[in-house]
Design goal:
By secondary structure, the chain is of the alpha+beta class. Helix content is about 20%, strand content about 20%. The strands form 3 sheets. It has a 3-stranded antiparallel sheet with strand order 2-4-3. It has a two-stranded antiparallel ribbon with strand order 1-7. This is YkgJ family cysteine cluster protein.
Length: about 100
Amino acid sequence: MFWNDRQKLKKHGLLLDHAIDDDGRCRECGGACCRSFPSVPLTFEEYQRLTVLGSGRLHFSLTGRHLLIIENGCEFLSDGHCSIYEHRPDVCRRFFCSD
């Protein structure tokens, strides 16, 4: 099988103004959004919470947004699911994938 024989399913991401919890689409996705961006912006409170949860890929900033670096896959993605789903950052809560 050649690489061009398979067709990729294209998804489009939307950042909503409200959180989406327990969307069935997220359970079936395999974590595409958790692999598709270089970083996630964090509030200081989210930064502190992820520090307590053991994150090793945080970027602290004195002048801008704090970040969780997710390039090449978020460290909290486990078997295609978010291992900190109840504690995930606001941006993750508001992200919605559409076909």
